[in-house]
């Protein structure tokens, strides 16, 4: 028999925290206790931050980015090159691209990849809106920055086929050795791709 | 240059989530995005649960447990054996003891262990309140259920010395092979303890 030790309030908090990615039942208990202990310094600010996020955060109807305005900061930034759209699977990938600061383009967040086995078809992703953006003109290049997984590549091929009738240039990220990476730890596919795309030193 | 991609609201949420144990900067970003995506099913309930927890959760002034009443459910339960106090380091240890349902006793949460190197002395822990509870009478046994670490054992010895002048019996948890554990993976100290405390089969 599991005795009732704490009120249902903390049990409910633990259950909800356990739904966050990266937290299981045990770490959710630790997180809940940590919050209770750091009431002023963490629990109150986190509650306020969540309230504010609930109140203000929206999904950009143009690109699918998460922001406090729609269209988002990136879509409405006139300094961004609107001729280039980088297609990513998820907002976290958009953030990763932005951290790299490699290009000053706009984005399109698919919200996942095509995955017939999981029942994810084209209509479940933001693919139609991407085609609309391209058809509306002004786009010269679509960079498919999807993950180098089977589902990611399937999605990339599907989008390439859809955009075949347009004037837009469809590109993908280069494969190769990660910067700082050690050959010994790389798979054969990556090494083969790096050899094939070798450049003059 | 790191460009500003999202509003400060989501940045603040990520920073606060990253302070939870078990979440780093990267998993906090994933958790924040997950919350934004699961706005109705997770973000709103979690915000409400935090608000309710902030409103209701208190620390029991008798035993240090986390609950919605002071004294807590355990301290005010007449069916609990008040003659036995189980001393634990943290509320998570109290919960672990309760999950085992091994004993129907009351508790005392120290809030940590003595750790001279980290500047944690007896006055930083709930040790004086434990001595008070014992001196007030009615307690026959104090079970030191602290962790089997150096700091835990130091704390156990310190409390034993403090209670030496009282009538109370001070015990500690048995050392031995964990149930379901494999000898091959156990340290020498545990095997030695298990041999020394062997029982008739």
Notable traits:
homodimer, 201 residues, alpha/beta, Helicase, Ruva Protein, domain 3, Dna Topoisomerase Vi A Subunit, Chain: A, domain 2, 2 domains, 4-stranded parallel β-sheet, two-stranded antiparallel sheet, globular, zinc ion binding (chains A, B), zinc-finger (chains A, B), metal-binding (chains A, B), DNA damage (chains A, B)
Fold and architecture overview:
Chains A, B: It comes from Phreatobacter aquaticus. Chains A, B: One of its GO terms (biological process) is DNA repair. Chains A, B: Pfam families: RecR_C, RecR_HhH, RecR_ZnF, Toprim_4. Chains A, B: InterPro entries: DNA_Rcmb_RecR, Rcmb_RecR, Rcmb_RecR_Znf, TOPRIM_dom, TOPRIM_RecR. The structure is a homodimer of 201-residue chains. In chain A, α1 crosses α2. In chain A, α6 links the parallel β5 and β6. In chain A, the strands form 2 sheets. The first copy, chain A, has a 4-stranded parallel sheet with strand order 4-3-5-6. In chain A, strands 1-2 form a two-stranded antiparallel sheet. With 201 residues, chain A is of the alpha/beta class. The mean pLDDT of chain A is 90. The interface between A and B is large, with 60 and 60 residues.
């Amino acid at each position: 028999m599991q005795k009732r030790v704490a009120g249902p309030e903390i049990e409910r908090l633990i259950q909800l925290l356990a739904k966050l990615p990266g937290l299981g039942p045990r770490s959710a208990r630790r997180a809940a206790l940590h919050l209770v202990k750091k009431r002023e310094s963490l629990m109150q600010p986190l509650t306020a931050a969540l309230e504010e996020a609930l109140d203000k955060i929206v999904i950009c109807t143009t690109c699918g980015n998460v922001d406090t305005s729609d269209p988002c900061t990136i879509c409405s930034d006139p300094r961004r090159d609107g001729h280039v759209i980088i297609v990513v699977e998820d907002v976290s990938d958009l953030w990763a691209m932005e951290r790299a600061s490699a290009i000053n383009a706009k984005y399109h967040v698919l919200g996942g990849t095509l995955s017939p086995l999981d029942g994810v078809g084209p209509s479940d992703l933001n693919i139609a809106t991407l085609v609309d953006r391209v058809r509306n003109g002004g786009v010269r290049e679509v960079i498919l920055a999807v993950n180098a997984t089977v589902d990611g590549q399937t999605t990339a091929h599907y989008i390439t086929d859809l955009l075949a009738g347009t004037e837009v240039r469809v590109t993908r990220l280069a494969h190769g050795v990660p910067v700082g990476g050690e050959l010994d730890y790389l798979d054969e596919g990556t090494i083969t791709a790096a050899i094939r795309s070798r450049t003059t030193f």
